[in-house]
Structure formats: C-alpha cells, structure tokens
Design goal:
The complex is a heterotrimer of chains A (319), B (454) and C (362). Chain B is of the alpha/beta class. Chain B has 19 helices and 11 strands. Chain B starts with a helix and ends with a helix. Chain C has 2 domains: 231 residues, Rossmann fold; 121 residues, OB fold (Dihydrolipoamide Acetyltransferase, E2P) (Beta Barrel). The chains are: A mainly alpha (319), B alpha/beta (454), C alpha+beta (362). Chain B: Belongs to the bacterial solute-binding protein 1 family.
C-alpha cells in the first residue's frame, strides 16, 4: 500500500544538500486518500487513549503547577514558578525529599544485599534447596495491603510478635511506627520484605546463568568462595544488579500504598514520602497547584534515574 | 495484509462498532443505576457519609427508620472513606450527576465548604420552616455558623475530655482531679502516680495532635487566628506563637522533665497505643476524644474517671470546642431534593435519635432533651462518668475562641502544629518551634487568600 | 609430580556406574592423553583428578599423597577448560593474574609471573584487551597463560582445542606440546580426537563403555590394539573388521565367506572370529568372472592416494587405500587380497594373538 521511495525517478542523483531539499519538498513517501483513512483508523484509537490518559493529564499538571488553585481546585492566579520556588525552599518539602531519599536508598541497599545473599545461598547445590528457593521467592505474590497488615501485626507495640519477643527477653519494646526513626525503619523493613521475592528471583536467575566453569577454574586456582563471590559472581551479574537496583529505586520513589496503610506519612512527617505528600496535598488539603508542582519534580527525579539506567545499561556495565 | 483487513473492517465496521457501543453502554448504564434508584413515588436523597464500623451500622439504622417514617423521600446512604478524602470528592463531583444531595463533612472543612459556595446554608430551611434549633448544643451549632448564619447542622460531635484511672488513684491514695481541673492539678496527680507506683505507672500523656492544642487554646479563651478565629472576617494572620500556647507546652514540658509523661507520638497508632496502655494500667491520665468512652468502658477492669479538659492555673475554663462532623446540603440539586435532605437532618437531630446515637457510637447527644431519654439514663446508671462529656458540652458558652476555626487549609495547619509539638516533646525550644510553625502557617494562609482573591 | 589412579570408580546414582576399575600411573613430566568417544566418562575422570567431582571408590594419589578428599586448590594443579573459562569482565592480564591474586601473592611476584606467562604464549601486546576482543586461538592462549602463571606442575586440559578450526588446531597442538616440554609439566589431556592423541601423547588411555580399554604409547596402541574398539578408534580410514569362520576341513584355515582365506600356523581357537585389516594393508586388482571376490562401489582420490570402497561378494563393505591414483569404475569386479599385519579378534572383539602365514586368497 505504501509507495516505494525508489519510485521517485530523480532520487539518488543529487548532492547531499539538494537531495535533502528534494526530500523535504517532494513526496517520496505519500499516502492516497484511502491509505490515509486506514492510517487514521489504525492510529486513532491509540492516539485517543494516549491523548486522554497521558498527554492531557501531563499538560494539565504542568499548567496547574504554574497557578494557584482556589477552594474548589480551580486555577485562579498565575504565579509562574513560584510554586516550585516555595517547595524547594520549604523545610517541610525538603524534609520529604530527604526522607524519601533515606527510604529509597535504604530500601534499595537492603533489598539488593539481602536478595544477593539469598540468591547466592540458593545457588548452592544442597539437599532441599528447592524448598528454600520457593520460600525466598514467595513474597512475590503478596499484595501491598496484605504485606502492610501482616507487618502491622508484627510491629504492634502491645500484642505484636516483636513486642512479645522483647518483653520475653526483658528488652525495651521498640516503638515501631510511633517513633520517627523507627517508623522509617519499619516501612523500610516491610518494603524490603515485599521486594525480596522479585529481587531474589531475578538475581538467582542471573547467578544461575554464570558459567559453572568460571567457579571451577577459580576454585582450582585457589580462590575462596568469598573471593569467588566478589570477583566472579558480582561482576558477572553486574548488569542485572544494576537493573534491579534502578527498578527498586524507582519503585521506592513511587511507594504509596504501604505508607498509606502503615504510617500515613507520620509520625510527624517522618515517612511523608514525595508521592504520599502529593496525594495528601491534593486530596486532603485540596492544594492542587502545589501537588502538581510536586508531581513534576518527582517526574524529573524518576526520569533522571531512568535515564541513568538507560545510559549505563547501554554500556552493559562491566562488559 | 492491510488491504485485506481494511476490506474486512469495511464489511463489518458497523456491526463491530455496534457491539462495542452496546458493551460500553451496558457497563455505564449498570454502573449509573447502581443503588441510586428510589422506590416509586419517592424522591431519592443521595447521602455521602464517612462513618465506618459500628457507627455506620447505627447510621444505616437511623436512615432506615427515617425512610419508614414517611413516604416522600428515600435517603440512600453511601460510605465515602475517610473525612479528609471525602472533602475533595464532594467538591470535585459538585455539579455532576454523581454528586450527593446531602453529605457529612468534618469540622475543619467548614470554611472550605462555606467558601466553595456549593452548599445551601441550612439557615434557609430553618427560617422557612421556623425550625427551633435552641435544643441543639449552642457551642456545636456555633462551630458551623458564620456571622449568625447556620451553614450546616452538627451531627456527630465529640469533645476532648480527660480520662483517668480512678482505681489506680484510689490504690495509691491520690486525690482525683476536680470536675474542671487545672494544669497544676493534673501535674500533681501524674507525678504522684509515677512516684508512688515506683515508676511502674506513667502519669500522663497528651497525643501529638493539633486538635488538642487548638482545644487548649479554646479553653484558655485564645484565638489562634485573627478576626475571632475567622468568625468575624476572613483570616489574615495566624499566631500559634502566643503566650497561652507556650503555657500549654510548658505544662507538658514540666511533666516530661519529671519523667511521668509518656509520648506515644501521633496518628491513629498513638491513640491505639495510649488506650492499650491505659487499659493495661500502665498509664494514669490521658486527654482524648469523648468518642472513646465505649472502648474505655468495655473490658476495663478498673473504674474509669472523666473530667473536663484541663485549663491553665489562674483562669477559668472557657469551654472547649467540638470535633466531629456536620450535615450539609448541596445546592446543585432541585429544591424538592434539598428540602428532603433537610427533612432527614431534622430527623437526625431529634432527641431520641441523638440519644440512640450517643449510646451506639460514643458521640455526644446534641439535643438537650436527649438527656431525658431512657437509653441515655440507662447508660449513665451503668457508667456514671459517661455523663461528664455531655455536661462539659452543655456548660460551654459559645464565643469565637471555642467555636472552632473558620479557616481553609486547616489540615496543613494541624500538621504544622503537630510538627511543633513533636519538636517540643523531643526537647526542642518552644519559642523557635512555634515561630517556625507560625511562618509556614502564615505563608500558606497568604497563598490561600491570594488564590481565592481575598 | 606423578599421579596414580587406583581402581577409581564413579557412580552417579547408587545404581549406574559411569567409570569402573580405572587404574593408571602417570609419570612426572609425561604428556598423558585420555581419549574416547563422547560420553565415555573421560571428562568425568579429569574432573575427579582435579577434585571438582568426588570419586565413589578407589584412590587418587599425587606423588605419594592420597588426594581423594582434598579440595581442588589443595591439589596444586591447574586446568584448562574446553570453553577456556575466561572471565569476560577482566582484561587478559587480569585473567591471568586472577588465581595469583586469589592466593594473595605479592604484587611484584604476580606482575613478574603474568608478564612471563603472557610472553610465553605471545600475548604481551594484547594484555589490556577483554576476552571478547580476542580470536578463538588468542583466547586459548590466555587460558594457557593462566595455567603457566599458576606455576603448578600438573596441568589438566579438557578438550582445549575442540572450539578451534582445523588449521588453528594443528598450530595450537604444537604450541601446547612445546609448552609442556619446556615447562616439564605433567599434562593430562582429554580429547575425543584420536589424531591429537596420536600426535602429542607419551601415553594414551583409551576409555570406552565405562572401562579403560587400553593404556599404551601411540605406536603400541596403533599396532597392538587390545580389542576391536581400540583398533577401530585409531587410524584413518578406519580398519576393516570382517567376520570369519574356521574351515571345517582344516582348522588352520579361516575363511571370510568364500571371499578371503587365511592360512594360520596354528589352529584357529574358535569357530567364529573377526579379522582386522588396515586399509593400506590390502591390495586390489581388476578381475573378471570367477576371479573376482568384490565389486567396486566408488573411489575417492585424495592426491597422494586413493580410497576404494567395495563390497565383498559375501556382502561385507570394505575400504582399501592404494598409493597414487587408481582407476576403478563403479560396479567393476575386482579381486581384493591382503598379506600382512592381520589382526584377529574373538566374536566379542577381544584380541587373539595368532601367528599366521598371512596371506589371503580366494
């Protein structure tokens, strides 16, 4: 249905410069009316869906972020970048940025280290290892709400497992979820627990695909298993490791359900992550313009990490 | 390939389109007809509320009996989640077919609802029908009114009260607090309890909760915000850093320093934990909503004591404001519907229903005649202390300081109050914590005013 | 350092034996080749010597130490893998230095050894490259350099040349041989390629069907195969093995049907035998009618010799190597004879030593 560019009889006999002009001015790729009809017929639905669900909300968010919104959420006063300036100079917002960073980095580091540990453990040829492999990946099927409720029970200061253990051992009960520092640790633990199944599975797959002969060669050459882990396993799976890190990082930035169910951003903003903050500013306080600005800042942050991932993955990390 | 598929589409385009349209139609029609139809001849009144658990059951019961009591209207209750989220749902759905005719919205959303101009002030119906509101608690009514105009009518209402473990006080021979105790009185009891129990029992706690700080100011006859907490004009200045806030925080600081104070942090978990500790006899005194009476009496081996919210030494208690929510009427529905909504409000406010409501939920009966109802009398016989919150509510003479704060953005203001409280609880400087809060609150207020052209 | 295998056995599950009764003595400085068809267990045997696979029974000794339970690194040996086992994320230099670093040698020592090893395999210029930037032969050399640098006196190689093309294989064969001689390594080399075995080995171990078939020098194995399998495994084209019967009239005479007749000095030990004749120990000439005992199928001219494929009248296929060019047409009747180097096997393929007058005629 498409006309071949070669059907243009003059193509290919001009200098690069004039050729470009010709391609711009002449139709080397044209559609007749019928083709156009089909083109729109096929592209239409996806354009419509993208337009309604992606482009319009994006531009609307940008638009709102440049205004102040009134009581009923309508943009009223154009303020330019004032919303952004306010955010980036507000101690409260900077605190949110900080706790998000702490959370995201904490979650990523712990997920990767634990996932790697379990994956390495599960790669050993031991009797009954299959049971552990299943167990380690079990949290993959657990939904956020189930995980949150499960851990809320564990963290409960009077009847929770951890409190009972502490009391039994005559240790002070840790104020999980009520103390700023511990609440952060509690949500990190829960998130890591949830992430672990997926991370384990991916890393386990990566480790399995490292040729066994590399380890055999190393063990003959006198490398300890510790040395092998750091000098063979880690470099071999570094692309996967990097991929999982970035995915975990980005997922961390987007963490919402767990925060809503476990801490509601508290105590006193100690776990008020960027996404949760956006939700509260928009749907609790009705401050849509500020929430829009926050959304765009978050988008930029996530985009930067995604870009980093693409850049580095292009180079395949180590080899 | 494309051509083939094209011919196929051309041949069958209309039938395919038809199927899609029908499918979509079925989904939408089904969705929109869901639960919104009333019985023949009755006007449907869609009612959005945020009551979960036992309160929802009690509310459904009330709605059912209303629907049975007459044949003109049918109230259709729909649960909309938390107070905070419901506010935005109400505002954003306004003017669409999905919006409610009648809705419940919580205390600190009053200014927002007023400014949205999306509601019909109930004053209109009060005047038209010559409805006598004098039986309804004045301090609760004044919370939802502006310049003499009733915007909405309070429905579920609570007040902060002071709970104490009477059994423990008796055990250690400590004189219980008076009905309306002063700060120093509570300090004395908390300290004695802590010392006499050899540090086994903590004396007191005060949740990091902006509402409690606001109530302390109300009880000290102090407006947080200019123009009489917004009742006499649009707020332009917030001063949380005032001598009376300092007085309140210093009182807590005193108790923290002597070790009798325990900090449970903020939020729902703080409340769960302080109640658990109180019931376990590990905590002597705490200040919290009167709506917790139910939880504190069932399964409590110890005798529950209740007093009014404490007031600073040397001043008389001004009486505290209320918490809870009110019933509002949307103005995007026909007159007939709005009238029906008001019909239900009147029903909900009557003495019998308010009495049942208090027994079922712990929220205070707003109608003064409810006190004569048998169900409430029975409750008081069983738990004498349950009488106290109602008395506190009845005793308060409404003024600007104890009629709530009529300002938008209260959610954020509360958060900032709580940040300041936590700073102080953790040993930070009172003045600088309040100054920081002041700055942020005023910046926010200015933005709000600017956005709304005030 | 010498290696002694004493009745070594490997079972995979409790039932199936993979290797049985493997015994051998590999002397210090010897180039020892283990050869056999794929699946015969030769790699398993090598891995057992390396310590990568535990043995089920028997004894492996290095010098006088039993190493059965020693981990690989305690056996003081080095190994070159079929796929070279190079670390893709390390440069050539670091690949060679890997084991030395793992053993925490002094940096100076490492540098000196790596340099020396790379020089020995001619890779000094490529030291900074990653494995993926090398050709197959260069990768092979990196693996060799790693073995060299490790300074172990025993080197195990598992089909090291099988991933290379034919020409490179010949070149690397020579390099490996030269290196082994130069360093005085005790080298155990696993291959399925009889040519590699013949050209490099001091001694060859032939493995098949879970058992050692024969151990011997290349010429010994070629000339005196202990059974039909070994005889068939070595030599290209393959040896002709023909079924034969003892004559009922004269027990000194053995007949391959009516096509060939062998006269023995002694009595044939059994009624049924197999006769092995190397293709270059046979002659062919044109014949007609009653004279002929075979028909030509086709011929292959290789330049310096010609292979004639033919079918004996009795139905057995044979092939004969003739020097120079030989012109036979297909379906041409011929007469095949042989007169030397006959081998006799019993029906199970076991070698029978028989002196023979050794000629064959119709």
């Amino acid at each position: 249905m498409l006309k071949s560019p070669a059907s243009n009889p003059t193509a290919g006999v001009h200098s690069a410069d004039t050729q470009a002009k010709i391609e711009a001015s002449e139709k080397t790729f044209s559609l007749n009316a019928k083709d156009k009809y089909y083109a729109w017929l096929f592209l239409g639905p996806s354009l419509l869906i993208l337009g309604v669900f992606i482009f319009y909300p994006m531009f609307r968010t940008l638009y709102l972020s440049l205004f102040l919104t009134n009581t009923v959420g309508k943009p009223t006063v154009f303020v330019g970048l004032q919303n952004y300036v306010n955010l980036l100079t507000s101690a409260d917002y900077l605190n949110s940025l900080l706790v998000t960073m702490v959370y995201v980095l904490g979650v990523t580091a712990a997920t990767i280290v634990l996932g790697l540990l379990l994956a390495n453990l599960a790669s050993k040829q031991l009797a009954g290892i299959g049971i552990f492999r299943t167990l380690f990946s079990a949290t993959m099927g657990v939904s956020v709400s189930v995980a949150a409720i499960f851990w809320l029970f564990i963290f409960n200061p009077s009847t929770g497992f951890l409190a009972l253990m502490s009391t039994w051992l005559h240790l002070p009960v840790i104020p999980w979820l009520t103390n700023s520092t511990w609440a952060m640790i509690a949500v990190i633990i829960t998130t890591v627990w949830m992430n672990l199944g997926f991370t384990f599975l991916i890393l386990f797959g990566a480790i399995q695909s490292v040729p066994r002969t590399l380890y055999e060669a190393a063990s003959i050459e006198g490398a300890s298993s510790r040395f092998q882990f750091f000098h063979i396993t880690i470099p071999s799976i570094s692309p996967t490791l990097f991929f999982v890190s970035i995915v975990t990082l980005i997922e961390g930035f987007k963490s919402f359900g767990l925060i809503d169910l476990m801490t509601k951003g508290g105590p006193t903003n100690a776990t008020n992550m960027l996404v949760y903050r956006i939700y509260k500013d928009a749907f609790y306080s009705g401050n849509f313009s500020q929430a829009s600005a926050e959304s765009l800042i978050l988008t930029v942050i996530i985009a930067l990490f995604t870009l980093l991932q693409f850049k580095v993955l292009e180079k395949r990390v180590n080899y | 390939m494309i051509a083939k598929f094209g011919t196929f589409l051309k041949k069958h385009f209309l039938p395919i389109l038809g199927v899609i349209v029908i499918a979509i139609g079925v989904v939408f029609v089904n969705a929109s007809h869901h639960e919104t139809t009333a019985k023949a001849g009755r006007t449907p009144i869609v009612f959005w509320h945020e009551m979960g658990g036992p309160a929802e059951q009690a509310l459904d019961k009330m709605v059912k009996s209303f629907n049975q009591s007459q044949d003109k209207y049918e109230v259709i209750p729909q649960y909309e989640g938390s107070y905070d989220e419901a506010v935005q749902k109400i505002i954003q759905s306004h003017g669409t077919s999905a919006s409610p005719a009648l809705f419940q919205s919580f205390d600190i959303s009053t200014a927002q609802m007023m400014h949205s101009k999306y509601t019909t002030p109930v004053q209109k119906f009060i005047d038209e029908e010559h409805y006598d509101t004098s039986d309804i608690s004045p301090v609760a009514r004044s919370f939802y009114s502006n310049k003499g105009q009733q915007l909405a009518l309070p429905f579920n209402t609570s007040q902060p009260v002071l709970y104490y473990n009477a059994t423990l006080l008796k055990k250690y021979g400590i004189t219980p607090p008076s009905k309306s105790p002063s700060y120093s009185e509570i300090t004395r009891i908390a300290k004695q309890l802590y010392e006499k129990s050899h540090h086994q029992v903590k004396g007191m706690t005060m949740e990091i909760y902006g509402w409690l700080l606001e109530e302390a100011l109300a009880n000290d006859k102090t407006s947080l915000i200019n123009h009489g907490d917004g009742h006499t004009g649009n707020p332009t200045k917030i001063s949380v850093n005032n001598p009376n806030t300092v007085k309140f925080l210093k009182w807590i600081r005193t108790n923290i320093k002597s070790g009798d104070f325990v900090n449970y942090g903020s939020g729902a978990s703080a409340e769960t934990n302080e109640i658990a500790a109180f019931l376990a006899g590990k905590l002597g005194i705490f200040v919290q909503s009167s709506a917790y009476i139910g939880q504190l009496t069932t399964g409590n081996k110890n005798e529950l004591g209740i007093s009014y919210f404490p007031h600073p030494d040397g001043t008389k208690a001004n009486g505290v404001g209320i918490g809870g929510a009110a019933l509002w009427i949307s103005n995007d529905k026909p007159e007939k519907v709005q009238k029906g909504a008001f019909e239900f409000i009147k029903y909900a406010e009557n003495a019998k229903n308010q009495a049942n409501w208090q027994v079922a939920t712990g929220y205070l009966a707003l109608n003064k005649n409810s006190q004569k109802e048998k169900v409430l009398q029975d409750l008081y016989k069983k738990i004498p202390a349950a009488r106290v919150p109602g008395e506190q509510l009845a005793s308060a003479k409404p003024n600007n300081a104890n009629s709530g704060i009529l300002m938008e953005g209260m959610q954020l203001t509360r958060e900032l109050e709580e940040t300041a409280m936590e700073t102080v609880y953790n040993g930070g400087n009172i003045n600088s914590a309040l100054t920081t809060a002041d700055k942020a609150m005023n910046a926010n207020l200015q933005t709000t005013n600017k956005a709304n052209g005030r | 350092m010498s290696i002694t295998l004493n009745d070594v056995r490997k079972d995979y599950d409790s039932q199936t034996a993979v290797l049985k009764n493997v015994s051998a003595k590999i002397e210090t400085g010897e180039f020892f080749v283990i050869v056999g068809p794929s699946g015969c267990g030769k790699s398993t045997l090598l891995r057992m010597i390396a310590g990568l696979t535990p043995i089920t029974a028997g004894e492996i000794k290095i010098d006088d130490t039993v190493v059965n339970d020693l981990p690989p690194k305690a056996r003081k040996l080095t190994m070159v893998f079929q796929n070279y086992a190079l670390f893709p994320f390390l440069s050539v230099w670091d690949n060679v230095a890997f084991g030395l670093k793992a053993r925490k040698l002094a940096t100076d020592d490492i540098n000196a050894r790596v340099k020396e090893a790379l020089k020995m395999v001619n890779l000094t210029k490529l030291a900074k490259r990653k494995p993926r930037e090398l050709s197959g032969g260069q990768r092979q050399r990196v693996a060799l350099a790693r073995a060299v640098a490790s300074d172990a006196k025993i080197c195990l190689m598992d089909e090291p040349l099988s991933n290379l093309d034919a020409q490179l294989r010949i070149k690397m064969r020579q390099e490996i041989y030269a290196l082994q001689r130069k360093l005085g390594l005790t080298l155990i080399y696993v291959t399925h390629d009889q040519v590699e075995a013949m050209t490099m080995a001091d001694h060859i171990m032939v493995l098949n069907d879970r058992h050692v078939q024969q151990i011997g020098t290349p010429s010994d194995i070629y000339q005196n195969p202990r059974n039909a399998f070994v005889a068939k495994f070595f030599g290209t084209p393959q040896i002709n093995i023909l079924p034969a019967k003892r004559s009922e009239e004269n027990s000194h005479i053995v007949n391959v049907s009516s096509d060939l007749q062998i006269v023995l000095d002694e009595e044939a030990p059994s009624a049924n035998l197999q006769i092995g004749i190397r293709p270059d120990d046979m002659q062919v000439k044109r014949a007609d009618g009653v004279e002929s005992n075979a028909v030509v199928k086709n011929t292959e001219f290789l330049g310096d010799e010609t292979i004639v494929y033919a079918t004996l009248n009795s139905g057995s296929d044979i092939h004969v190597v003739l020097p120079g060019k030989a012109d036979f047409r297909s379906y041409e009747p011929i007469r095949v004879t042989a007169n030397a180097n006959l081998m006799f096997f019993d029906p199970d393929g076991k070698r029978i030593d028989l002196s023979k007058e050794a000629y064959v005629h119709a």
